[in-house]
Amino acid sequence: MQLQIGIFEEVPSTSVFSQIESKNIPAVFQGCVKEWKAFTHWNPANGGLDYLQARVGSLNVEALLSKTAPVFYGDLRSHERVPLPFSTFIHLCKQRLATSERLQPVMSDEEDHDPLLSGVAPEQIYLAQVPIMNIEDQERVQLANLWEDIQIPAFLETKELAYVNLWMNNANARSSTHYDPHHNILCVVAGQKEVVLWPPSASPFLYPMPVYGEASNHSSVALESPDLSLYPRAESFMEYSQKVILHAGDALFIPEGWFHQVDSEDLTIAVNIWWRSNITCSMLEHMDAYYLRRILRRLTDKEMDHIVPIPKTSSQLEKQNMHSRHLLSSGGEDQGQCGGSVLASEKKDLRGKDQQPRIDLHVLEPCALQALHKLVSLVHDRINMTDHSQSEQSTSANAFAVGLKDQHDKTVRNELFFMEDDPVAEVLWTLEPHTLQNVLLAIAHNFPRTLEALILHLLSPVGAEILTKKFEEMDKLNTEEDRNQFYQVFYGVFDDQLAAMDAILNMKELFALQAFKNVLDKYVGVKI
């Protein structure tokens, strides 16, 4: 579901903004800052540059210097912060304004020979996040003189503000895609900004930097020219984005965690206000580890459901059954000879354990019979392949060869996490729960050793995930008595029932581990 950004033609009241903030969805407030003194006095077209120079003078500010301009990447390796007299930057802006108006450039011998500008193009310098107010470090505040030109919106009066910053560029500039750990009101005082936003749920397509890095809140992808060989998911990133254009006087609420990329036109001046969200304020440090585990578990569960979606609706089940009939009939095998290949050791007495009526092969519906035949064939193909491998070895090397083969089979099986790679998992997935239950009972009654081999030796991580999900659906459809009877027959096949349960659970946990690794890659930027 697309989260629609709200557009408000009037400045919201405190109560209305509280409702907006609680939803964590961006909103545009048109004309929100037109009453600011800064809106009138900072406008470069109306002498605003002279006003700013008079207010701040030659105080040093920290400027962003980047050779990748007009893109200013957030990674510390891509830029440097340098001290710069504010008057020098204003001089660059005046030159830009004069050029745009086709006037003679403004020259100043003192400023033209500033050592910082040697070999640096003016568009490579950007006043980014220069503090006007910083509640945590007053000593870093460089532009306190501009505070009285700003009027904090009334709907923020109850908030404990953390930072107020100036953003000012003399040429077109683009920020890298990033998110902030605070709620943000971005106020455009002069010029224009175009902002592209993505919700936190779009993180997988933006490849966030590793959480342990210096730029962990930035995307790894250069959105101007994404390298899809390195970031294949980035092909879909724009499908989850929304774009807004902010004119002078407009403000944009950017909730914490929302990725955004900002394009600023020439001589754009903006102020942003950061404050901690209610959620962040209420998080207690001793609960951090618990919340982290809950969030990772929640994302892992969603990832598992994404990899193996289980159809729920009747229309989906019908499509699934159609796919099942196509899959099971495409092998070119004689579907009527389901019992033609049987293990020599299939004989097993289930009397005393078998409380359900015996399911004979001839009573199975065609789809179930085809699935049973496919599963039995897969088991026997594996057994025949193993026997053939063993027969090719010398007697002295036979035990060693068998050990290697078993290890190889186990390794291959443990690496199957996607249904399309595993024929057993695909057969399980194509059957609706009741049909699968009948298939498993029929195998238990007629080919118990085959069922044992299927679970202990062929079941992969994705197969175990699908099987347990199907078990959950069966449980919802069956009475408690039917559930107990089914599991009694199913697990009664195994000489060691705990070994069977362990085999299923171990494979299921391997599947969950892979989903967890996917989550770390997509949301945290960590590959294991």
**Alpha carbon gap, first and last residue:** 31 Å
Name the beta content range.
15-25%
**Shape from CA axes?**
elongated
* Number of DSSP strand runs: 14
How would you explain this protein's 3D organization?
This protein has 528 residues and is of the alpha+beta class. 42% of the residues lie in helices and 15% in strands. The protein contains 17 helices and 14 strands. The strands form 2 sheets. The chain has a 9-stranded mixed β-sheet with strand order 1-2-12-9-14-7-6-3-5. Helix 1 links the parallel strand 1 and strand 2. Helix 10 packs antiparallel against helix 11 and helix 15 crosses helix 17. The radius of gyration is 33 Å and the shape is elongated. The protein starts with 5 loop residues before the first strand and ends with a helix.
Brief account:
This protein is an alpha+beta fold and 528 residues long.
Topology:
Blueprint: E1 6-8, H1 14-23, E2 27-29, H2 37-41, H3 48-56, E3 60-65, E4 71-72, E5 80-85, H4 86-100, H5 109-112, E6 125-134, E7 161-169, E8 173-175, E9 183-190, E10 192-198, H6 203-206, E11 242-247, E12 251-254, E13 259-264, E14 268-275, H7 278-282, H8 288-307, H9 314-328, H10 366-391, H11 398-414, H12 423-430, H13 433-446, H14 448-458, H15 461-477, H16 480-492, H17 497-524
Parallel strand pairs: 1-2, 4-8
Antiparallel strand pairs: 2-12, 3-5, 3-6, 6-7, 7-14, 8-13, 9-12, 9-14, 10-11, 10-13
